[in-house]
Every structure is written in structure tokens, then in C-alpha cells.
Amino acid sequence: MNNKKTRGGISTTTALVAALSVGSADAVQAADGATLYQEKVCHSCHGANPDEPTIPAYPKLAGQNAVYSLQQMKDIRDGRRTNGLSIAMKAVVGSVTDEEFQIIAEWLQTQ
Ligand code: HEC
Q1: What is the DSSP string of 52-104?
Q2: Ligand 1 mean position to 19 CA, how many Å?
Q3: What is the predicted pLDDT for the residue at 72?
Q4: Is the distance from the beta carbon of residue 86 to the nearest atom of ligand 1 less than 6 Å?
């Protein structure tokens, strides 16, 4: 292998492949947050754009501080927060892990 000659091409390709192969915890965090938000069906209530929930009774999540969002997600999943329509979310996020919530929360903060 002639690393010097092909280095630029290889690293560009590697970066593209890494960005496309989502689903791994090792992938780029920003991409993971967006992907998890879709895979865990958060978007069905909080909106494809987390600033535009599907109905006004659901909260906007974009731009919220990650530390706050993460706590709310865990409280709703674990039944500590039961106000309003929390029960609707609790019904679908039971299997989402703390790590997945954290990645989503950090992504939401940047939206
Ligand atoms: C079935 C609809 C639904 C789904 C799916 C859903 N949520 Fe929610 N979520 C809600 C509702 C409704 C609330 C507000 C509860 C209330 O009325 O107080 C909420 C609240 C939240 C909050 C707290 C917002 C705040 O300002 O306190 C966060 C953060 C959140 N959801 C994140 C998520 C994430 C992340 C997912 C996906 C893993 C998700 N939600 C999936 C309906 C949903």
C-alpha cells in the first residue's frame, strides 16, 4: 500500500462509509441521535422536525438542554413523571435505554 499517495482518497471514503453505516454506538453522534429519534418513533408525536410536534398538546423538544431532556425521558419511561399525556409516551419508550436517550437528548439540544 502506498499510504502517502492514496491517503486523502481513503480517508474521504472511510468518512462517508462511517456516516452512512448508522446504528452503531461508535458512529458519529449527531447522525445517531437523528437516527434513534426516527427508529424509536419519537417523531410520530414530537414531529419529524422536533420543533414541530404533530399536535399542540405534545411538547417541542428542539433546543432543550440535554440534561433536562434526559431526565424527563427517564422519568416518563420509569413512571416517575405521570402528568398530562405522559402515559402516551410511556407506552412506547419502555425499551429505550439510558444510553439511547442520552444520545437523542444531546442531538435534540443542537436542533
Ligand atoms: C405517543 C406519543 C409520544 C412518543 C412516541 C414520544 N413522546 Fe415524548 N412526550 C410525549 C408527550 C405527550 C409528552 C408530554 C407529557 C406531558 O403532557 O406532560 C412528552 C414529553 C417528552 C419530553 C419532555 C419534554 C419537556 O419539555 O418536559 C421529552 C424530552 C420527550 N418526550 C422525548 C421523547 C423521545 C426522545 C421519544 C422517543 C424515544 C419520545 N419522547 C416519544 C409524547 C410522546
Answers
A1: S-SSTTSPP-TT--HHHHHHHHHHHHTTS--STTHHHHHTT-TT--HHHHHHH
A2: 27
A3: 98
A4: yes
- Tens of pLDDT along 41-61? 999 999 999 999 999 999 999
Sketch out the chain's domains with CATH numbers.
Answer: 3-109 (1.10.760.10)
> Is the full-model pTM beyond 0.70?
yes
**Ligand 1 atom closest to Cα of 72?**
23
Please indicate whether residue 59, judged by its CB atom, sits closer than 6 Å to ligand 1: yes
Spacing, Cα 56 to ligand 1 middle (Å): 12
